[in-house]
Amino acid sequence: MKNLKLILVVGARPNFMKIAPLILAIRNQRKILESGNFRINYRLVHTGQHYDLRMSDAFFQELAIPEPDYNLGVGSGTHAAQTAEIMVRFEKVCLEEKPGWVVVVGDVNSTMACTLVASKLEIKVAHIEAGLRSFDRTMPEEINRLVTDALADLLLTPSQDADRNLLREGVPQKKIRRVGNIMIDTLKINLQKARELRPYEQYGLEEKKYVFVTLHRPSNVDAKESLRQIMQNLTGLSQKLPVIFPLHPRTEKNLEQFNLLPERGRYPNLKLCKPVGYFESIGLADKARFVLTDSGGLQEETTFLKVPCLTLRPNTERPVTVTIGTNKLTSIKTLKKDISQLLEGSDHRGKVPPLWDGRTSERILKVLAEKSVGR
Ligand code: UD1
Predict the structure, then answer these.
(1) Strand (E) positions, 88-186?
(2) What is the pLDDT of residues 72-128, one digit of tens each?
(3) What count of other Cβ atoms lies within 10 Å of the Cβ of residue 265?
(4) Ligand 1 in reach of 140 Cβ (< 6 A)
(5) 107 CA distance to ligand 1 centroid (A)?
(6) What is the distance between the alpha carbons of residues 47 and 54, in angstroms, rounded to a whole number?
(7) Which residues are designated catalytic?
(8) How far is CA 68 from CA 30, 138, 189, in A?
């Protein structure tokens, strides 16, 4: 019997829903893989980039992700400090475990840091969600994507545009495999449960009669003036349709620091709350009149759910959500007009992109098995 050991890396909130279905597929490998004399096992490493109960633990519980075998506990810091700390601690894990592959997901600092470590130790790296590009190097995630994809040995892409980006950068075709969108695996598994929860009711909201907002990107929330204008738009919107806005720690900290939190009771229909868990987030998105966000994941989830989405960013690394799905880019300047249009009901119904079918983790497992045979 041949054994293949993987190290699966998670670090920040958007990673958890991408690793959960892969773990499930590994558990069901007998049904997925044809060869019976091949066994995949894994170690789960949490870098600790996100550590709050609401940013991390809640997702492990809801998505039934097992306790990590290693928690590196790096916590917050500047980009350099956080990346360096992850690298030092992850190197020890790799030396101890000697895995066949390190599997990283998405575009957070943990993704890039662990890729760098594995590459230098000559351990193969598989990147799930490879090839996405915003072509905006002011975004820390774009730097993480470029470095990760330059080094990874296997680039598992969600869509055709991602393949094209990689080929344009000179990545050989044989390293690229289009497997689809793994987040949709998690969404399909949990949608029923999220719907049954009806999370909007606890905020006194009714189906399709509220707007779901999430904003946390440095470009939107780190400067006082842009955050002030965002809040002005939201208070205005809340007088027409209730708004539910769970606050990422970064956003909450900045609202407090810039003194932009509305007086208690002044805008009762602008409901600010702590970060919500996975089921709640999906349940809120699913029944929203529309979603306003700067998250990467919500652009995709709303496309799958066919809920209109306004993305407060000048660009997106997920263009299929705009060309095929329900997403539209907006800016602080156009926000008011775009919101009015949606309130009037002029949204376009999108389609679900190919391979966003809930079977991506199966395909990934097959590719990993195929690449490892004969090692
Ligand atoms: C990170 C990712 C971003 C992802 C986002 C989702 C990078 C470069 N960015 O951004 O792509 O969309 O996660 O949330 O990796 N904090 C807490 N508790 C936590 C985590 C963070 O209070 O559990 C606070 C800290 O004050 C920290 C700040 O949030 O300094 C930012 O956290 P950090 O992990 O640096 O980046 P995010 O903005 O969360």
Answers:
(1) 101-105, 124-128, 154-157, 176-178
(2) 999 999 999 999 999 999 999 999 999 999 999 999 999 999 999 999 999 999 999
(3) 6
(4) yes
(5) 12
(6) 16
(7) 216
(8) 23, 32, 21
Instruction: Kindly report the backbone phi and psi dihedral angles of residue 31, in degrees, each rounded to the nearest multiple of 5, phi listed first.
Output: -80, -25
Among 237, 251, 15, smallest CA distance to 112 is for: 15
Take atom 33 of ligand 1 and give the residue whose Cα is closest: 76
Q: Which two tokens stand for residue 133?
A: 């590009």
C-alpha 73 – ligand 1 centre gap (Å): 14
Structure tokens at 164: 């094209």
Q: Calculate Rg over the CA atoms of the chain.
A: 21
Residue 88: helix, strand or coil by DSSP?
Answer: helix
Closest CA to 362 of 213, 177, 191: 177
Diameter of the chain by CA atoms?
Answer: 67
How many Cβ atoms sit within 10 Å of the Cβ of residue 138? 10
Verdict on whether the full-model pTM lies above 0.90: yes
Q: Please, what sign has the CA dihedral across residues 148, 152, 158, 160?
A: positive
